[in-house]
Amino acid sequence: MACDVFDPYPKNSRESFYDREDTLNEVKKLIQGKFWPLIIGPKRVGKTSIVKIVVNELNGVYIDASGITSLKQLASSLYNEIKFRFQIDLKVLKVDIDKKPTFSLQNILTKLGDVVIGIDEVQNITTPWFISVLSTAYNTSDVKFIFTGSMIGLSKVLVGESKGKKFSNQFKGRPIVEKEISPFSYEESVSFLAYGKERCSINMTEEEIKDSAETYQGIVGWLTYYGNLRSLGYDHKKAKEEVDNIASRIILDEYARLGEIEKVIVKALGLLKSSNWNNLKKVCEGLLGKKISDWNFDHSLKQLIKARIIYKKDGKYFLIDPMYKVLIRD
Ligand SMILES: Nc1ncnc2c1ncn2[C@@H]1O[C@H](COP(=O)(O)OP(=O)(O)O)[C@@H](O)[C@H]1O
Ligand SMILES: [Mg+2]
């Protein structure tokens, strides 16, 4: 029998979501106080689950914007989500979405009134017109938002970090409150696995739990896959191998989306475990077989930090996700 806390899909309800009670409550309170939380954090720590749970509890609308890059796509996604759920006349709007996406999006938001809209992975919508829509919504409607996204693309504009953009000025990120979600600590990882073990009567020893907590460095998604496989009857070794297989596929895909210098930085950090700026640059140049300008190198490092793929502590850089080690296997 599968175990609900280890269900590999993003969670929809608190019952199957381990802890993070304070975060859920805080995010909910912010929304009710008319702030718009922007949930930031590494991949696989529970951002989507948080948005889904909060939106569910507040009877709102969830939109997966990971593949959405234009207002037209956003407007039709929103339209599709709400057409059966809310008693508002949207017939006229449908025709408008193609021709006047900004106008129709604004219209939908105004008509929706006091509704929470969760937009997951907002960073790919980079058109400044979105800011203009949000700004109008903020000033003229009761609609509330919760976003997730990395601090690249729109999210940056949302919090007013972007320079010189015509539309960000009128908005200045006024209602946005950033909320950072971190991987579990070692202790939290152990408690999470122990909780699932109890709840779903899974046969796991204390040593196995500690080993997994050590291996996955608090990345909740990997802990969840591991727990799920254990609940299906895999032994410790087999479950870890299977998580490795799944992780390789996912991480190779994420890696493929990085720029040339970002790729080499991630590989170098896989080899070095941690490094200061100078040494990391040298190793990257070695791997790449050519010089990298200071500016380009620094820019790529900063992008990786914003994407929460690496972090900097005491002057040294580290990978956040231990499974990025799959990149240096061959
Ligand atoms: N606190 C938690 N309790 C139970 N499962 C969790 C928790 N946080 C994350 N997960 C699980 O981890 C995986 C990644 O979660 P998700 O919400 O998709 O994260 P993100 O959006 O940050 O990538 C999913 O399988 C989800 O069910
Ligand atoms: Mg997500």
UniProtKB/TrEMBL annotation:
Keywords: ATP-binding, Nucleotide-binding. InterPro entries: ATPase_dom, P-loop_NTPase, WH-like_DNA-bd_sf, WH_DNA-bd_sf. Residues 17-209 form the ATPase domain. The keyword Transferase does not apply. The keyword DNA repair does not apply. One of its GO terms (molecular function) is ATP binding. This is ATP-binding protein.
